[in-house]
Specification:
The protein has 709 residues and is of the alpha+beta class. It is built from 23 helices and 21 strands. The strands form 6 sheets. A 7-stranded mixed sheet has the order 4-21-10-3-9-7-8, sandwiched between helices. It has a 6-stranded antiparallel sheet with strand order 12-13-17-14-15-16. A hairpin with a 4-residue loop joins strand 5 and strand 6. Helix 1 crosses helix 2. It starts with a helix and ends in a 46-residue tail after the last helix.
Length: 709
């Protein structure tokens, strides 16, 4: 045992010396290349003296990075996350200036702007060297992971699951935001995602599930994590009783939706027992949080959501690598956008303004922080972890769900999954890895691009109201934008849109290819007759527009050419909505029972031959309503878990499956009592105990889509 400890200490010392040597050589090379950086006195020094000076400077910089950097990041934790990422270069350069000032006889000198470059290169080389040495020595890598896990457990007062009886396996749930089932099959078959393909060839299976009518992250993730997405009709909607516009990616709205779901179910969520929530809109009841939107509106110590930044940025090499990747990704997006414009790609949406930074945040910063947090959760041996990786969804909105831009994102996500799977092999307990998505993406030209006017303009025209000569663009509702604004401590979509003023003008809100129209001057939900009396031409104008698929008005579905179907008459709605796929009528019927359903719900046209829809937002890859792959995400599970069943209809059904997997033999033990919830369309007070699928629309008996084995 003593011999083994000496061998371990010797190996660690050798790695430190090798990293030090690599850093010294890097510093010598930079001193020879950069004119404003020198490592010798004014009178000149011998090669030996210059080498010793470089070694001294590299050692001092390494010590400062190891000792001062974590304290510095902890002190700056209240700085907005995106700002911290941009400050990394300057903070690292400051440490180099301090290190050079410690060299005897003043032999080290560098210009401040050059110090930023030197420090960035030094950190990157040290990180790459250290990683390469650990990868080559697998035993050392495994021992390091166990030491990290044991250190975390001691600091948190956790028991070591590796001691005594073998710990039951944990459940790691990774959400690939916006990746549809068919796109997953294509990515695996074409070699874009070799890690996922290898899992499917061996230990895992995958199948599709069907979303609710509101096929977007807010409704899906609330149902998956909290077991109820009742009364979430869309991504954004107007509530007449409060005069507020609820937006799923607004922190205050997310907190309220989570509170309502907990009130309906009487349960904290899927992650209440030793759980961690990473990069999600909602907490799921977890105590360990990072980048969780529903708690990001809190101030002070009550907000633990941003603590994940410290765990990641406390390593200066991580900080530099992420900052460099952030700048590279923003530049890549600008280049891709310019090339798409030069080629005349169609369809195309605007990708200027802040979007390059938003994309870089989603595909680099958020991905890196979430992956690091998940790795930390596994090393700490937590029981249940749910993490959302939003990169694909964000890029698909602006570049389309399939193409070179999204293919590149899928490759990177697969590499992140490979890293997580590798660390899982060294975790103190075995982990069952479940991959899933919350919705898919349907391609298509925007409603504005195809027809030259927005949905709001069409509604105003149908109501006899003035329409601006120039059609206004509708802001995209992508989740990553809200994450960036929350990180910057800026409000998300506040102002006039959040609080519509009194008057007779309708409130028109887009949610992908689903649009919601509310009349603030009509108390309660407006009947079809009431709408037609107030605005005689509106419903006919909407229903007969070629870009509109159907309308829902107070229990009645309206289609083109005067077709009408009552939801309470069996078979009528099923026939009218048949082009939108199995379960469409039940999805609409369930939404019709929501207390806050809009006066008029508008679903865009859908072409079954091409799978295209027309988003009412500025998105050429969209989700939010019915039509195409947006309503068919995937669920992928290890074969040692039970089969999820023939058909999964609605996010609440996925929640029930995940809860069952948490309770299965030899798996994590969670409370066996099912939460209370309301039946479809019933008031909250009338609950049905023991119903694990409360509020989800029932199965239609349609055959399941292909399963990947």
């Amino acid at each position: 045992m003593v011999r083994g400890r000496w061998r371990t200490a010797g190996s660690a010392l050798v790695r430190v010396l090798l990293v030090w040597a690599a850093s010294t050589l890097t510093m010598l090379a930079l001193a020879g290349i950069l004119p404003d950086f020198r490592l010798q006195s004014d009178d000149g020094d011998s090669i030996t003296q210059i080498g010793l000076t470089a070694a001294w400077a590299a050692g001092a910089f390494g010590m400062l990075s190891a000792l001062v950097w974590p304290v510095l990041v902890r002190a700056l934790l209240l700085v907005p996350a995106l700002v911290l990422g941009l400050l990394v270069f300057f903070l690292n350069g400051s440490l180099l200036l301090i290190a050079l000032s410690l060299i005897p006889d003043g032999r080290g000198e560098v210009a401040p702007e050059t110090a930023v470059v030197v420090a960035a290169v030094m950190s990157a080389v040290a990180s790459a060297t250290s990683t390469a040495l650990a990868v080559r020595d697998d035993d050392a890598y495994r021992r390091r992971l166990y030491r990290l896990a044991d250190r975390r457990r001691r600091r948190q007062g956790r028991a070591d699951p590796a001691r005594g009886a073998e710990a039951p396996p944990g459940l790691l749930m990774l959400q690939l935001d916006g990746l549809g089932y068919e796109e997953l099959r294509r990515a695996c078959g074409s070699g874009l995602m070799p890690t996922v393909a290898a899992l499917l060839d061996g230990s895992h299976r995958a199948r599709s599930w069907r979303t609710d009518w509101s096929s977007q992250t807010g409704a899906s993730q609330l149902g998956i994590l909290h077991g109820s997405n009742f009364d979430v009709p869309a991504f954004r909607w107007y509530e007449k009783d409060t005069g507020e516009v609820m937006v799923c990616n607004r922190p205050t709205s997310a907190a309220e939706l989570q509170r309502r779901a907990i009130g309906r179910t009487g349960d904290g969520g899927l992650l209440t027992l030793d759980g961690a929530s990473r990069g999600n809109l909602f907490s799921g009841g977890a105590d360990q949080l990072a980048l969780v939107l529903s708690v990001s509106a809190r101030r002070g110590r009550a907000n633990r959501s941003r603590a994940g930044y410290f765990a990641y940025f406390s390593d200066p090499a991580n900080a530099v690598r992420t900052a460099v990747s952030f700048v590279s990704e923003a530049a890549r997006e600008i280049g891709q956008s310019v090339r798409a414009r030069i080629r005349g790609d169609r369809p195309r949406v605007s990708r200027g303004g802040l979007y390059p930074l938003i994309r870089a945040f989603a595909t680099v910063v958020e991905r890196d922080v979430v992956v690091a947090a998940v790795i930390g959760d596994m090393l700490a041996g937590r029981t249940a972890v749910y993490a959302d990786l939003v990169a694909y969804d964000e890029v698909a909105h602006h570049s389309g769900p399939r193409g070179r831009d999204t293919d590149r994102v899928l490759r990177r996500l697969d590499r992140s999954l490979a890293l997580i799977a590798r660390v899982a092999e060294h975790a103190p307990r075995r982990y069952r890895i479940v991959l899933l998505s919350d919705h898919g993406q349907s391609p298509g030209e925007t409603f504005l691009g195809r027809y030259g006017l927005s949905l709001k303009d069409l509604v105003r025209a149908g109501c006899g109201l003035p329409v601006p000569r120039r059609a206004g663009r509708t802001r995209s509702g992508a989740e990553a934008r809200a994450a960036v604004l929350a990180a910057l401590h800026r409000p998300v979509e506040e102002g006039e849109e959040a609080h519509p003023g009194p008057g007779s003008d309708p409130v028109v809100l887009p949610s992908g290819n689903l649009g919601l129209i509310s009349f603030p001057d009509i108390p309660g939900r407006a009947s079809r007759a009431r709408v037609e009396r107030a605005h005689p031409a509106l419903l006919a104008t909407l229903a007969n527009h070629p870009g509109v698929g159907f309308l829902l008005v107070d229990g009645v579905v309206m289609g083109r050419d005067g077709r009408v179907a009552r939801l309470d008459v069996p078979g009528e709605a099923e026939e009218l909505l048949a082009p939108f796929g199995p379960g469409a009528a039940e999805a609409v019927r369930r939404t019709d029972a929501f207390p806050h359903v809009a006066d008029v719900m508008v679903n865009s046209a859908y072409d079954p031959r091409t799978g295209t829809v027309h988003a009412f937002e500025e998105q050429i890859g969209s989700h939010g309503g019915l039509g195409g792959e947006q309503g068919h995400p995937f669920l992928m599970w290890p074969t040692d878990l039970s089969d999820p069943g023939e058909e999964l209809a609605g996010a609440e059904a996925v929640h029930a499956v995940l809860r069952r997997w948490l309770r299965e033999p030899d798996g994590p033990q969670v409370p066996v009592d099912e939460p209370l919830g309301e039946p479809v369309g019933e008031p909250v007070e009338e609950t049905a105990p023991g119903d694990a699928n409360n509020g989800s629309f029932p199965s239609t008996g349609a055959p399941a889509r292909d399963e990947i084995r």
